[in-house]
From TrEMBL:
This is Aldehyde dehydrogenase family protein. Coiled coil: none annotated. Residues 14-476 form the Aldehyde dehydrogenase domain. Gene3D superfamilies: Aldehyde Dehydrogenase, Chain A, domain 1, Aldehyde Dehydrogenase, Chain A, domain 2.
Length: 484
């Protein structure tokens, strides 16, 4: 059933703009999910003006308890429609129901976490000598644009929105057009709470894909919290440079999984297969390279191929599916073309052929692929693939494993698999990556910072440090004549 009329939220009112209409599709059967209507620039200007007005008023920026109450009420409102959100997320995004459930529950939990944290923002004081006092305050940085991708539209929205609101910013949300229906349902729920002052939070649809760049260039947007590809992140950083805007960039990844000689191979094969196929290989922290000690390579390869061969792609709502749909036909075609490229290369071999399983409904399904590689210079090893496909590479010793892991210019996530915790930590500490998991992969926590080294981004989200992406530090200095 098609859901009509998804508009933009501006100053407390859901408005229909005049610029374009995008029909979002269910990747599992191409059925329409909803119509996404976009704003024109006049409507987008109204959204920015409301956010600026509320920020300047100062009530929101200076009232941590109001912010905590609003964030808690938002969590309650989202929890009240959790099942609807899960169903819609499966339909609009194509992911498994278990993955959608995890996403919605984590989003609610994250709102509560930042509700608490908004009441725990303290500055510092310093006195260099009698009569001198420095107050070091944390202030909200201003009006913030939160720009999100399609692959985890709720988690990635709340991961920025939670700390932005907790810090005292006012916010304009800009979802990806392909997942705007679920984003809007969530936004309708969380902005209906009485504790949230009108105008603190807006949402602008983007059917024609111009609103993101427009916000980035807007003079009154001071913070850009962007999650998406490294290519778009680089454009944003370029545009934002002329006004020195504050950037929070969570970008692409190319996660390696390092399997040391002494790893529990069965456990590692299970974890790594899950890490390759989670969200159908369309998650920033998905495993894209498997690096294995040569002495256990053959045994491990057989186990990993066994695990990957057992994956059953299918619609996310069916309990029999163990991997959901791909984003679109383009993703399926990329999956197949990348395998042809590997097949044609003298230093590569396809170890497990991924199939194109598009069905008569047009549902975008594939099976996972694995290829061996003896070269590191190739784009298949250097670039994000974003399908369930990984390279299989061998090393002679942990030093070489580290050197291989650090080859791409990404540094978002990695894992090390070993029964020797000291060796695993030695390797973990030498990989250039914002996160390294040991004997598992893809464990993310609301309370713990995540973010990238190198081309994977700037700043950290989740945890206490996420607040820093949305704050300025101010020094207020007092001098008095009397001795204490
Ligand atoms: P994308 O970069 O194509 O789009 C992301 C968002 O940016 C969309 O809302 C889009 O409309 C908007 N946008 C496009 N051009 C823009 C511009 N010039 N200025 C401002 N906004 C613009 O990314 P995607 O395909 O939606 O998402 C997949 C990518 O996101 C992958 O590279 C993945 O690794 C990355 N990602 C990273 C993380 C992380 O935590 N590091 C998490 C999820 C996804």
């Amino acid at each position: 059933m098609m859901d009509h009329g998804h508009f933009s939220l501006v100053d407390g009112v859901w408005l229909q703009g005049t610029n374009g209409c995008y029909v979002s599709l269910n990747p599992a059967d191409r059925s329409p999910v909803g119509e996404v209507h976009g704003p024109d620039t006049a409507v987008a200007e109204q959204a920015v003006a409301a956010a600026v007005r509320e920020f300047r008023k100062g009530q929101w920026a200076r009232s941590p308890r109001t912010r905590a109450a609003a964030l808690n009420a938002m969590a309650d409102a989202a929890a009240a429609i959790a099942n609807d959100l899960i169903d819609l997320l499966v339909r609009e995004n194509g992911k498994l129901r278990a993955e959608a459930t995890g996403e919605v529950m984590a989003s609610i939990s994250e709102l509560r976490y930042y509700a608490g944290l908004s009441r725990d923002i303290f500055g510092r004081t310093f006195s260099g000598q009698a009569g001198q006092l420095s107050l070091i305050d944390k202030e909200p940085a201003g009006v913030c644009a939160v720009i999100t991708p399609w692959n985890a539209p709720l988690t990635l929205l709340v991961r920025s929105l939670g700390p932005a609101l907790a810090a005292g910013c006012t916010v304009i949300v800009k979802p990806h057009r392909a997942t705007s229906v679920v984003s809007n349902l969530f936004m309708r729920a969380i902005t209906s709470v009485p504790n949230l002052p009108t105008g603190v939070l807006q949402s602008l649809n983007d059917p024609e894909d111009w609103v993101g760049a427009w916000l980035v260039n807007h003079e009154h947007i001071r913070v850009i919290s962007f999650t998406g590809s490294t290519a778009t992140g680089a454009k944003i950083a370029g545009s934002a440079a002329s006004r020195f805007k504050k950037l929070s960039l969570e970008l692409g990844g190319k996660a390696p999984a390092v399997v040391l000689e002494d790893a529990d191979l069965d456990r590692a094969a299970r974890e790594i297969a899950k890490g390759i196929t989670v969200l159908s290989g369309q998650m920033c922290v998905c495993i894209s390279r498997v690096l294995v000690d040569r002495r256990v390579a053959e045994a491990f390869r057989d186990k990993l191929v066994g695990e990957l061969s057992a994956v059953r792609p299918g619609p996310g709502h069916l309990p029999s599916s163990t991997m959901g749909a791909m984003f679109d036909d383009g993703a399926v075609e990329r999956h197949m073309t990348n395998q042809q490229t590997a097949r044609a290369h003298p230093d590569m071999e396809v170890l497990l052929a991924g199939e194109d399983r598009r069905d008569e409904t047009g549902g975008c399904f594939v099976t996972p692929a694995l290829f061996s590689s003896r070269t590191t210079g190739h784009p298949l090893i250097q670039n994000e693939l974003f399908t369930p496909m990984a390279s299989f590479e061998t090393f002679e010793n942990p030093e070489e494993a580290v050197a291989l892991a650090n080859v791409p210019d990404f540094g978002l996530a990695a894992s090390v698999h070993s029964t020797d915790i000291n060796r695993a930590r030695w390797v973990a500490s030498r990989i250039d990556s914002g996160t390294v998991w040991i004997n598992c992969h893809n464990r993310l926590f609301v309370e713990v910072e995540t973010g990238g080294y190198k081309s994977s981004g700037i700043g950290r989200l989740h945890g206490v440090e996420a607040l820093l992406d949305f704050q300025e530090t101010k020094h207020v200095y007092l001098e008095n004549d009397y001795e204490l």
